[in-house]
UniProtKB/TrEMBL annotation:
Keywords: Oxidoreductase
Domain Ketoreductase: 4-185
InterPro entries: KR_dom (IPR057326), NAD(P)-bd_dom_sf (IPR036291), Sc_DH/Rdtase_CS (IPR020904), SDR_fam (IPR002347)
Pfam families xref list: adh_short
Keyword Oxidoreductase set for record: yes
Protein name: Short chain dehydrogenase/reductase family oxidoreductase
Amino acid sequence: MTTRTAVITGASSGIGAATARRLAEAGFRVVLAARRKERIEALAAELTEAGHEAVPYVLDVTDRDAVATFADHFDRCDVLVNNAGGAIGAETVGASDPADWRAMYEVNVMGVLHVTQALLPALVASGDGTIVVLSSTAGHIQYEGGGGYAAAKHGAHAIAGTLRLELCGEPVRVIEIAPGMVMTDEFAVNRFRGDEDKAAAVYEGVAEPLTADDVADTVAWTVTRPSHVNVDLMVIRPRAQAAQHKVHRER
Ligand code: NAP
């Protein structure tokens, strides 16, 4: 028998990397999937050095053929964490570039679809599978300048909800984690196209935004509950963020 295997997409940074560390510590062989080879290789080396099993795999989740090849490569999958994703831009609906919306839909929705479809047979065959979808509070509410990201994350939320219904009776849980404000190194910088000042302003004055590890801790907790316990949806925000628009900032 090989070790229980967890596939984490977007494992090259932020929440994905932190989740890979947590699941490796929980005893899973972790498969680290992302586009940046050096990053996932470095993380795999770090985890291997610490005595864990970690396999890096360069993957673009928007490339359906590549995802199919990826799925064929592994003998088992017990846990899939659909984490790859992100936001591009903060323009109003009226001023948005459709290319940004398409790119967000491709990674946050189609990426989840491709990887989930490809690994579903293995998850069912495991006899005790778990699918995690990292959506966002933006998958549950709208905010000004968040139209494209909210549309995509509402899509991710819809996938999780539909899958849970469709898989009822199969040995596979479907868990949605919807974080609010998480301060990771790249998320806001990517959203603002490399503008570090705009990215920093997102977290300005917020005493303690969530960290990648806070979210990873939640993912690992839900995944390691007894098999019959399905945490359908967990919304996790920093104490300073009571709602999407209600953020306490110290001046
Ligand atoms: P991040 O550090 O920017 O991580 C995003 C990850 O996704 C990276 O590892 C990136 O790796 C990967 N990725 C992007 N496009 C990909 C593609 N086409 N194929 C494969 N991997 C791809 O952001 P994060 O803050 O950790 O966010 C992780 C997830 O949580 C995302 O789905 C995000 O939408 C969600 N989330 C974040 C926040 C927040 O405030 N930070 C809040 C709620 C939800 P490569 O570039 O190497 O491919």
